[in-house]
Structures are given as C-alpha cells and as structure tokens.
Amino acid sequence: MIGKQVKKCRLDRGLSLSELAENAGVAKSYLSSIERNIQSNPSIHFLEKISLILNVPIETLLYGSDATNDLSGLDKEWIQLVKNAIESGISKEQFREYIEFNRWKKEQLHP
C-alpha cells in the first residue's frame, strides 16, 4: 500500500524515480524497492523526506489520499485558523515547532 501511494504521488507531481530520490536524499534503489513493494515497512524518517518533496502529509502515503481529505473532525473555526496560518506564510515546519514548543512548555509547568 505505501509503495503504491508513493508511486501515485510521485507520478501525480511529474517526478521521475531518480528526481524524487535525489531531491529527498534517499537511495534510488531503496525508493524503487518501496514502490515495487519489495520493502514494505519504510522508516518514518524516510517517509518524512519523501512526503516533504511530494508535498503531501505522511498520512497520505500510509493510508491514501482519502485519509487527509476527511475534515469531519474539525469545526469551521479550526479550518479557518489553518487557512489563515497558510495565508500568513507559516510553514508546516514552523507550525510543528510551535506545537512541540507548547507541548514542552506544558510539560514544564505540569511535570
């Protein structure tokens, strides 16, 4: 399943196997073995690199595109906040860092 999703996303973006491997900093042979389902359990680090270049959430690679299209658990205010963050230029990485900082801060206050 993961290999199929990686290949689908790669082709959707018009990237060759070589281009994706080079841009993500992974071995072309390993990427090929993932796409052909010879290797079926890639590391989260590998998935992070690939998802970054493909500009898709890791969940898309794990579960398919439908997994990230289900926003039923979010109310309109959350969706608008995310849209505002994107429009303001906040990157996904900056947003992740903010969340991690808040978790750390909470742990410091309530060990």
TrEMBL record:
Domain of life the protein comes from: Bacteria
Keyword flag DNA-binding: yes
SMART domains: HTH_XRE (SM00530)
Domain Sin: residue ranges: 65-103
Organism expressing this protein natively: Alkalicoccobacillus gibsonii
Coiled coil: none
Highest classification ranks of the organism: Bacteria, Bacillati, Bacillota, Bacilli, Bacillales
PANTHER family reported in the protein's UniProt record: HTH-TYPE TRANSCRIPTIONAL REGULATOR, HTH-TYPE TRANSCRIPTIONAL REGULATOR SINR
All residue ranges annotated as the HTH cro/C1-type domain in the record: 6-61
Name assigned to this protein: Helix-turn-helix domain-containing protein
Keyword line: DNA-binding
Pfam families reported for this sequence: HTH_3 (PF01381), SinI (PF08671)
